[in-house]
Hints:
Elements: H1 4-18, E1 23-28, E2 51-55, E3 58-63, E4 77-82, E5 87-92, E6 107-113, E7 118-123, E8 131-135, H2 142-145, H3 158-165, H4 172-177, H5 187-196, H6 210-231, H7 239-246, E9 265-268, E10 273-276, H8 278-281, H9 290-296
Antiparallel strand pairs: 1-6, 2-3, 3-4, 4-8, 5-7, 6-7, 9-10
Helix pairs in contact: 1-6, 5-6
Amino acid sequence: MPELPEVEALRGFLEERLTGRAIARALPVAVSVLKTYDPPLSALEGRTFRSVSRHGKFLGMELPEPPGGGGADGGGLWLVVHLARAGWLQWKDSFPAAPPRPGKGPLALRVELAEGGGFDLTEAGTQKRLAVYVVRDPADVPGVARLGPDPLAESFTREEFAGLLRGQRHRIKGLLRDQSVISGIGNAYSDEILHAAKMSPFKVADELTEDEISGLYGAMLATLTAAVERARGLSAAELKAGKRMGLRVHGRAGEPCPVCGDTVRSVSFRDSSLEYCPTCQTGGKPLADRRMSRLLK
């Protein structure tokens, strides 16, 4: 799943290529991808991209009203995209003349530019969670409206972070992933942040000491900032591999920890898993993996 660093890199990638260019056609291919109907997707055609912004894990593409007005759909519009777990964006320098046909393939939506080229939104797998919205304001998207603060915003201080943790009886791993608490962090980077902070993912947020809060805040900023820098300048096609290469524990169960050499372990859940280093994070004690325990009975 693309998280804050990859979505920020996609934002820069798209802003460089879309700003000042107009949409010729916007074609939904998968029925499930479009989550809004008013304004219609066709209202984007003929409009010119002004900017691309990031809202947590959402991409927002601004398309102001064209010169001379826009009729019933006048005023600025936004194309907002959430790539979810298996969605991705593929940049195309050209497209076939014939429009794509709806089917069972990964293609979900195509945006063709007036001067040629554009991008496809694709989604692998059977769980279709890729979401596209056409709205007058990004805040009209429920997921955007619920977002907590951006961890890399200059205004997001250590004190604000501490305030978000106080009174929270949830495990810190889940809290870091909660988009209504802090936006942009998912499964992979929460593992990386907790490893950098030398903290158990099962630790309860409200039980953290002031020193632990400071260490976690610093690890969060350092991990995300480094990941953004690694991703900067990569093409959309290169971002997935770039993310994988920068991860130290996530997705690396069974490999040696790059810090201490202990074996990275995993805890499985219904549809995901977390990875951690026992020596670095849990005092050498493996965390209980209840799912695996049940399978072994």
